[in-house]
Structure formats: C-alpha cells, structure tokens
Amino acid sequence: MTRICIPDDAPAVLAPSPVFPALQARAQLDYYDTLPGTEDLLIERLREAEVALNIRSSSRFTERVFAACPKLRMVSIWGTGTDHVDLAAAARHGVTVANTPGVAARSIAEHTLALLFAVARQIPHMDAATRRGAWERGQSMELYGKTCGVIGYGAVGRHFARLATAIGMRVMQWTLHPSAYPDVEFASLEDLYRASDVISVHLRLSPDTQDFIAAPQFALMKSEAILLNTARGAIVSEPALLDALIAGNLAAAGLDVFTTEPLPPNHPLTTLPNVVLTPHCAGITPEALHAGLQLAVDNIWAKCIRPPGQST
C-alpha cells in the first residue's frame, strides 16, 4: 500500500471527515493530529512517506525537507496557497506538488461579503451595544452605489465581484495577469485605490505580492474606505495597516488573515474598534471542507500514484 503521511492535522479537519475512512482503507497512513512545529520534526514524520497530505501551511516544505526525505514523491496540499512549499526544490527532487484551487472560492467570497456587511453596518459593535441596553442607530454605511475595488481576478475575486455587483456596487477590478483575460476591462491600481469605497484583496502570496499594500498604497485611499483581506495576511503590511486605521486614514477593515496565525494575544489589531476579525475561517464551511479534502486525496491518485487495484 502507498505510504501517506498527514503531518499536521491540527486542529483536526481530516480525521473527522468522511474522506478519512476511505483513505485509511486504501493506504498506509502515518497520521499526526499535532503540528510538527520544527523542520526536524517534520522531517522525522515524513522520512518514510511516499506522499505528504499537507493540511496546515505552517508546515514548510524546504530544500532540506525534500533532501532528507528521498522516498517522498508527492505533496498534496489541502488549500490553494503554495507559498510554504519550495517549488523549485520540489522539482529538483522529483516531487509533484498539487493543491486544491477553487473548491472554497464561493465560501471565501461569501465570507468576504459577510465581513463587508459586518464592517459597513458596524454589526459587532451594535450587537454588543444592544445587549448592554443601549439603542445606537444611524452609524451604518449603505453599500448600494458605492465603488468596490477587487484586487485579484482568480476564482475568489471573480465570485466576490459578482456578489458586490448583485448588491448594487460599482466594481473595479485589477489583476497581475491582464493578458489572460483579453475581454475583461481592468483598472489601474492607482485609479482603483483612489476611487474605491471598499477594497478587497484576493491575491496569492508570493515574493511579488508580499507587502503589496503598504504605506504608499494607503496614502492613495479614501479616508472613508474599508479594506477587506481574506487572502493572506502578509499581502498587507500590518504596521502600515495599523498606522492607517489609528490615524484615521482608513475608516475600517475586515480581516480573516494575518501575518502571524493564530493572532497573538493582545495584538494591536484586537484593540481597535474599527476592525472586524475572524480566524482564517473563510473557506472552512462543511461544504468547502469536504470538497477540498476530497480533491486533495483525489489528487494523490490522479497525479502521482494509481489507486489500489489499478494496474501500473
């Protein structure tokens, strides 16, 4: 049987899912419901494996990891991001890397819209105030007719743009790869920053997108603007974001992702009243969870190793 290591199912999502028993029946599993925490422990867990089924992006697949695990033939990632995998090193060591793009796109887009409503309508604040016996009204922002700038034109960005359009917003879009969409009209980044009442980030994290939005970009935005980020925390400079929020150069933010996750206790973002925070959960609904885990397992059989019982 194919030997598959799940080095990092913590908190557990794979083991409680319907996907897990079927996987157990078809492969020899080395399963861990704790994070490895160090490169050495990740290597120790993976050393005998042919396939790594990677659940958490905190497990970093480096040159050293691939060199120390010569039996490894594939890394199948639950999720879209590959920024924690040295892809060049994987290629040098003959390791196939697969991810699960698109399966959580609708879920993430819906969560982004939920963050937008929560921020624009100040729902967490008004919920808390109402529970205290206060009766605060008239502090909400109406979104109809406002301009929404969508940065990134992948599956999530496209879904969110449709949702924003459906509630009557004027959508401006920008992508790193405009030539791939010759029939779509894209705005310049500068125009998008200057014109948008809401800016929503839907990029992949890469060396080209780290700190993609920093102090110079915040300086272009309206002081009444809302920033949404359900992509990756490091795409937005956290120090610059904090400065803009505290100084009043940015009205508010809705964030599902952070530079360090979990968010450390007493992080400055947790002290700001004009920020709504969620724990990197935008793509984790039962529907998206099952679809993503199933695709991560299917990728193992389809892209690297034939299923048991199928001739080679």
Automatic annotation (TrEMBL):
It comes from the Bacteria. The keyword Chloroplast does not apply. Residues 113-282 form the D-isomer specific 2-hydroxyacid dehydrogenase NAD-binding domain. Residues 22-300 form the D-isomer specific 2-hydroxyacid dehydrogenase catalytic domain. The keyword Ribonucleoprotein does not apply. GO terms for molecular function: NAD binding; oxidoreductase activity, acting on the CH-OH group of donors, NAD or NADP as acceptor. Keywords: NAD, Oxidoreductase. InterPro entries: D-2-hydroxyacid_DH (IPR050857), D-isomer_2_OHA_DH_cat_dom (IPR006139), D-isomer_DH_NAD-bd (IPR006140), NAD(P)-bd_dom_sf (IPR036291). PANTHER family: D-ISOMER SPECIFIC 2-HYDROXYACID DEHYDROGENASE FAMILY PROTEIN (AFU_ORTHOLOGUE AFUA_6G10090). Belongs to the D-isomer specific 2-hydroxyacid dehydrogenase family. This is D-isomer specific 2-hydroxyacid dehydrogenase, NAD-binding. It comes from Solibacter usitatus (strain Ellin6076). The lineage of its organism: Bacteria, Pseudomonadati, Acidobacteriota, Terriglobia, Bryobacterales.
